[in-house]
Design a protein that fits this description.
binds pyridoxal-5'-phosphate; PLP-binding_barrel; Ala_racemase_N; Pyridoxal phosphate homeostasis protein; about 250 residues; 8-stranded parallel beta sheet; alpha/beta; globular
Length: about 250
Amino acid sequence: MTRTSAADQLPADQLAARLDDVLARLDAAAARAGRDGREITLLLATKTRTPQEVAVVVDLLRARDRRIAVGENRAQEIAKHADPMLADNGVPRHFIGRLQTNKARDVIAFAQTIHSVDREDIADALERRAALAGLVREVLVQVNTSGEESKGGFAPTLEAVGPILERLRGSGTLRPVGLMTIGANTSDATAVRASLRGLRELRDQVRTELELPELEHLSMGMSGDLEIAVEEGATIVRVGSALFGARP
Ligand SMILES: *Cc1c(COP(=O)(O)O)cnc(C)c1O
């Protein structure tokens, strides 16, 4: 379901207003945590938005001197990045969605960073495809810190993530750079914070106990919980609806 009609395009001034609202939220949360909002990557979760809309936001972020990434969560949406509006604009492309082994080739070709390694067989498939393509890709291991059954990911313990991280450490084509989670799906801010803080604590534990200092990134925080995520140490927040509106 890719939109093409001009009538559906979000006006640039509306995108700019929403973006400045998101950046103000991010900066205020960063300030509360003694951090600089400019060091946090704003990943655009573009879903079905058009190349034109994504390009407008990328330009606005560049003008504001921000770290940017563009993320897709469906292999079907990857094709839009061949569009001249997005191709070769120098913005890192990430993959954030649930992976299937039969889409590994497309994802390896498209994304320099893959956030959603949630099973061993996905790591195997990505590694094989990266080797065939002669590419090295960054990966994050997805962790289920909320315990919600609908969510993928490894359990939030050193015992659960240790083996996959050791396996990735030994890979010649996949480089483990961080952990990713989707926060608890609840309006209870305490539960949301616990699910996000848990990812930071796990990363810190992995870094010291597995001697993996390169495991730097925490990909966490979306439109509804980005402030809590930034306060808890997110290095990449993934934002969709706060910029592009509710999904159809
Ligand atoms: C869509 C999506 C987001 C962004 O969600 P919003 O609530 O719209 O900001 C973040 N992460 C993943 C994995 C997504 O699929």
